[in-house]
Write a structure and sequence with these properties.
The chain is an alpha+beta fold. The chain has a single domain, classed as Thrombin, subunit H (Beta Barrel). About 15% of the residues lie in helices and about 25% in strands. The strands form 2 sheets. Strands 2, 10, 11, 12, 13, 14, 15, 16 and 17 form a 9-stranded mixed sheet that branches. The chain has a 6-stranded antiparallel β-barrel with strand order 3-4-5-9-8-7. Strand 6 and strand 7 form a beta hairpin.
Length: about 375
């Protein structure tokens, strides 16, 4: 895979402060006086993670087999070396755990594990996001955020793209040891519905060419397959309904796997909220936040006040959610944070008491259609 095959522009090696990064992103956003135009509804497909061919099955097996328990723990759990801490005031609408395997959402929501490659340095790093299985013609589509497959920051970098990615629906990290050198693959206790390799990825044209949160379009669709199960994923987990161009500012529920507390506005270390509201995450548990959304006038996203942390990126944003059945309609994917008190500050987009989701419109619909229209298993033309 060569750098010039990647749709994200290659940034230089120069490095400047995070403050400047934030200002650049903010200036770009403020210069946009209307929602970004997507007249051609163009879609960008990333280079295939598991290309078709006579060795497709072996490559898929290798992709999934990369994620032994040791690598999984490094990517799936937080970097602060401590377990989750519930708020002393009790879990609330800002975030609370969803019961393991309960309802449809307990099967369709899952954790994404990624190995990123830095196009500037060649270095690799492990990370995690969240995603959701949606109904689709090929029964094989998972929706997440565009920045979970790759992103760049103009001028300052980094310029990252995924070169290995798996999806674990219903991920349960309760028994995943933090410090382990085990090369064993996860069992049903951690991956109750299996580990699914991401074979192909599509994202919006806007995100592919402006992967910096300033222009929006932060959404991606993934095609997944399991080397140990011939069925499509939606036949195993079911799929959430998905809809586009839905009414904005509705009561919304966000699901994801918050992992890192370094940018968790509600963490004990940040100490930004009253003590009874402070909480920490470890990445082991599916959490959710809910509230009445409002529309952000700068980034064209819907927003709720909530305490979800990094690791929740790409998690499903649902309307008309029924907690009794775990069913809803996915109308967005978690993208970034928002702090209206720092609208011209330096950290509002990195950390804030509010959660922003990319709301699915025409461009996101085109991405979904591209993913659902392909064969879930490549045709072997060798």
């Amino acid at each position: 895979m060569t750098a010039d095959a990647i749709p994200f522009p290659h940034s230089g090696a120069r490095r400047i402060s995070a403050a400047v990064v934030a200002v650049l992103a903010l200036v770009a956003a403020l210069l946009t006086t209307a929602a970004p135009a997507h007249a051609d509804n163009s879609v960008v497909e990333m280079p295939a993670l598991v290309p078709g061919g006579p060795d497709y099955q072996q490559k898929l097996k290798d992709e999934v087999g990369f994620w032994n328990l040791s690598k999984m723990a490094k990517a799936a759990l937080n970097n602060e070396d401590h377990d989750a801490v519930a708020p002393s005031g009790g879990w609330d609408a800002y975030s609370k755990p969803w019961p393991v395997r309960q309802g449809l959402i307990g099967r369709t929501a899952g954790k994404l594990l990624m190995e990123y490659k830095n196009l500037d340095t060649g270095a690799t790093e492990l990370s995690a996001c969240s995603g959701d299985v949606v109904t689709s013609a090929n029964k094989s589509v998972v929706i997440t955020a565009g920045h979970c497959v790759g992103y760049h920051l103009p001028v300052v970098g980094p310029n990252l793209f995924v070169d290995n990615m798996v999806f674990i629906p219903g991920f349960n990290g309760a028994g995943l040891a933090r410090h382990t050198d085990s090369t064993a693959l996860p069992g049903k206790d951690v991956a109750p519905y299996g580990v699914w390799g991401v074979t192909r990825e599509w994202t919006t044209d806007t995100w592919a060419h402006n992967g910096d949160w300033a222009a929006g379009g932060d959404m991606a669709a993934l095609l997944v397959a399991n080397p140990d199960d011939p069925r499509p994923i939606a036949e195993v987990t079911g799929g959430q309904k998905i809809a586009f161009n839905q009414p904005r500012a509705q009561h919304s529920v966000l699901f994801g796997y918050p992992t890192s507390n370094e940018r968790n506005y509600y963490s004990h270390a940040q100490n930004k909220v009253a003590a009874p509201l402070q909480r920490d995450y470890d990445g082991r548990t599916l959490m959710y936040a809910e509230g009445d959304a409002w529309s952000d006038p700068v980034y064209y996203n819907d927003v709720i006040t909530g305490a979800m942390a990094p690791g929740s990126s790409g998690g499903p944003w649902l309307q008309n959610f029924d907690p009794a059945t775990g069913e809803g309609v996915q109308t967005g994917a978690f993208s970034r944070y928002d702090d209206p008190g720092q609208i011209i500050g330096i950290q509002g987009w990195l950390i804030g008491p509010n959660l922003q989701a990319t709301q699915f419109g025409d461009e996101e619909q085109a991405v979904y259609f591209a993913a659902q229209s392909v064969n879930r298993q490549p045709v072997n033309r060798a």
